[in-house]
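Regression report. Comparing outputs from two consecutive submissions.

Submission 1:
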Amino acid sequence: MSDDIIVEAKDGEAAAKPKGGKKKLMIIIGAAVLVLGGGGGGAAFFLMGSDKPAAKTAEGEAEAEAEAEAEAEGEAEGDEKGGKDGKAGAAYLDVPPLVVNLRSADGAARFLKVHFVLVPGSASTVEKLQGKLPLLIDAYQPFLRELRPEDLNGSGAVYRVKEELLVRATQTLGPNQVKDVLIQDLVQQ
């Protein structure tokens, strides 16, 4: 008789284990769904909700800066021409895109396409820069051809190329001839 009781107890325990296991499994699955849902919702809130106001603010600041620069250049251009009748589009010199070979260690053919705009300085005009453009492109060619593909990696690469182009423009044309170099495209193949 005691054997029967022991056997029944063992059978009862065996039956209770799967029942308790299902409850634990349901609790674990429910907790996992809550954690993943909460994490996904939080990520969506932070990534989607916060970008729109920041983008509007950045665009507003950029537009304000562009207008201030255009007014300053318009006044300088107006002084040279005897009035403010000068066109705002004439304040920049669009340089045709330059395509050069890059120097690579493995000998593979790599190319760089650079398209930029020159902003005339206080001692120059677009017409003067246009006449000296062949000299300037000739000064840029050796620098651009000596670049390696790894020189163009990272976020600071565009800034370094821009600064070097400005330095070479100052060396070639003289001080206050080129105020800034605005890079439009920098494509590496």
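Submission 2:
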Amino acid sequence: MKVKSILTKSIAVAAFAVAGVAALGTTNHDAQAAVVKNDADVYNVYTSTKVYKNYKKPVATGQVLEANTSWKVIKTAYDKDGHKWYDLGKNQWVKVVKHHAPVVNTTSQNNAAAQTQSQTQTQTQTQSSQAVSQAPQTSYTSNATGSEAAAKAWIAGQESGGSYAARNGQYVGKYQLSASYLNGDYSAANQERAADNYVTSRYGSWTAAKSFWQANGWY
């Protein structure tokens, strides 16, 4: 936890010296308000704490220290009622309240750890499933038969000479499909599948795709 300080280091040292001098001859905290020797270097704040201008006649400054913060102690003093105060610098005083350090809820921590582990396992399983789905496809049987199969073979001959390894810029394989259609899987099976899907969605049939190619030189 980072320790905060309202004063610069040089002012803090001077204040410490003043506190030490003021402590001489002062032992009765209940009899009179007095500055004494510091009994702490840091004050840990566990709940929101008001800041006051003076410990003898406390007047709130409007500043409130946030919970779970730590502050450098410049001076220590007791008011006439024997209450301890800390000066955090520039006469900004807080009334010291004894706090017990927050109890760690191990049950909540264990539940959080278990939830994190479960989420990690789920992510791993999802990634494994995605890896399987993205693995190269080893087999595929086209539904194109008869004139459809002939038109498909004709387009492949025009595009690549029937070579699955053909490349032309972003166009890949036997049917010279854009690489984006293949999703990184350039296997023969995936090329056949992607080509069937492309033609079906764009032209409806391979014979229609062939007619378009003959009229335009591409499909």
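Expected: both submissions complete independently.
Actual: both completed, but the second showed a warning that disappeared on reload.
Relevant detail on submission 2: The CA atoms of residues 6 and 89 lie 5 Å apart.
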